[in-house]
Please model this.
Amino acid sequence: MVQLSANPVPVRHAEGLLHGFLVLKDMQDNLLASGELSQTVQNSRVTAELLFHFKDGSLYQETVVYSQRHFFRLISYHLVEKGTSFKTPTDWLLDGATGLAKVEATEEDGEQKKFAENLKLPSDVVNGMVTTLLLDIDAGSIRTDLSMVVTTPKPRLVKLIVTPSGEETFFVGGAPRKSFCYNVKIDIGGLSGVIAPLVGKQPPDTRIWIIPGKAPGFLKSEGPLFEGGPIWRIELASPDWNKNH
Model:
């Protein structure tokens, strides 16, 4: 069994109203989907929705509700993945208070599967909040352990191991700026974790770049969007006023 930590990340930068645009690309820089992130706050309760509309008609919709009173704590999480871009189209919901995870998935052969598991959730479950928490993790931390629920398609708890991987330079209008990169590794743990690399089931790491400082923010990420998926890149996008599109 995975030994999971139970130390929620303290709030150093309170989240607020947000509406931004993203693009999803493969590692050859081909555009796969256009994205949008919206976020609202009511008292200490944050609701964030991430949408990706794929060129092939597929949809990725992630909605997370969490509390940011002193610490970040998950309230609920809902993920919908449908369309041909996903190996196993899935619709699943996680209740942060009860630990109930309900999953509906369609296998490659078309078989429909449903699962309902009552998980004992630690207080540091970060589904839908990983990028947000990277803005609040102590920059001097050598390693941060967090918890996440994944579906394969059956829901299970895993550990996330977050480690810094150094500074990188990017440019805005030709001027150099410094970014900071984190590496996020899924630790499956137990016998499954020993076997996974041998049978190709160990998911690749995800790399996430942020701009540090007084007002840290997300820049881009590279990693799989779903279990068994390829490495894709998520980047910030700006409005295009070209009327010929």
Observations:
- Residues 1-5, 190-200 have pLDDT under 50 and may be disordered.
- The longest strand covers residues 155-172.
- The CA atoms of residues 25 and 181 lie 19 Å apart.
